[in-house]
Amino acid sequence: MHDMKIPYYSFAFQNQLMNDELIAQFQNVLISATYIRGNFCDQFEKDYAEHTKSKYAIGCGNGFDALKIALKSLGIGKGDEVIVPANTYIATWMAVSAVVADIIPVEPDSMTGNITPDEILNQITSKTKAIIPVHLYGRICQMDAIMKLASENNLFVIEDNAQAHFAKLNNKYAGTFGHVNATSFYPGKNLGAYGDAGAITTDHKNFADFSRKYSNYGSGEKYYNDIIGENSRLDELQAALLVTRIKFASKFNEIRVQNAVMYHQLIKNNEKIILPELLTNGEHVYHIFRIRCRKRDELQKFLYEKGIQTLIHYPVPPFLQNCYKNEFEADMFPKTSLQASESLSLPIYPGLTNNQIEFIADAINQFTETKL
Ligand SMILES: *Cc1c(COP(=O)(O)O)cnc(C)c1O
After folding, report:
1. For ligand 1, atom 10, which residue shows the shortest CA distance?
2. With a threshold of 0.90, does the pTM exceed it?
3. Minimum-distance ligand 1 atom for the alpha carbon of 186
4. Which of 65, 155, 201, 279 could form a disulfide with 150 if both were Cys (CB 3.0 to 4.6 A apart)?
5. For residue 1, what pLDDT band results from cuts at 50, 70 and 90?
6. What CA–CA distances, in Å, run from 34 to 38, 206, 224, 261?
7. Å from CA of 292 to ligand 1 middle
8. Alpha carbon of 226 to those of 200, 218, 302, 320: distances in Å?
């Protein structure tokens, strides 16, 4: 067991299950001779809309563009304040910067890492135009309360659903609560493509029409340009592979939940290691199995020496990054800073074996018994 090597992530099991279909899709795209916004793009947009129960899904280049286009479609720009999590992947912040709006960070709940309605409410001003909840680690935010608060304060909501494909709250999927929502199909996400890809989802035709045009040079009809847009199109190859990949999405999510259940059974419950809440009702799809430990760096090293690779989501919060640190005080978001120093992400990918999960849990129990 000592030389067992467990990577943080592996595509092997997933790719093997889909191998024949993926290769067939490659060939289908090749012979179709349409490589951008053709039938596969239409098909995937239809599939994604149906699977999420959104009225409209618009494929685009990546998750960042999806966020930016969502903000643009809502007319958010200079002078507008947008509430975002202090604790998130930096793409959420940079999308707000890209439309030249002001970033208003909100501290996370220490347990979930997500923003909460109470903290959001504290930051609302007369300039606030929108809230971007991020379903961090795959755990859906308190969307009912956030939507209520948004409607009471006349704000738009843009869900950043890059990490929580098919997580649901009361049978409603992440990415269908907000006015215009964004997601990423970056390869390592729960629903991942084989390159860059993203999508915007909405139930509103006007926002859908805008997003579709904006992402294709402002053009609805070829060579006629209604608005000044950009090029952020979903290519046919990614769309075709996603048509296959999406069929496996719920199965792979179920496996992630089973892995989370196993971690909960095996990692000894003590105050020294804090596990994410175990939710088997769909509210958490465990994109990331983020645990917390005061001696995180030591734990990471201990696991590494046993051949277990872990990651930190995220070691440096956006407000402390070089690109933003001049705009914020270093001690401004202590809860976020604490998360950055205590968080550790364990492998949870589909294909991780029961033996491997046992090995990881044993190692963690050993660490708590001997080093904490
Ligand atoms: C991955 C991710 C994004 C960005 O997606 P890309 O496709 O890489 O641009 C945005 N927000 C969050 C929370 C993410 O995890």
Report:
1. 91
2. yes
3. 7
4. 155
5. very low
6. 6, 27, 20, 44
7. 22
8. 20, 5, 58, 40
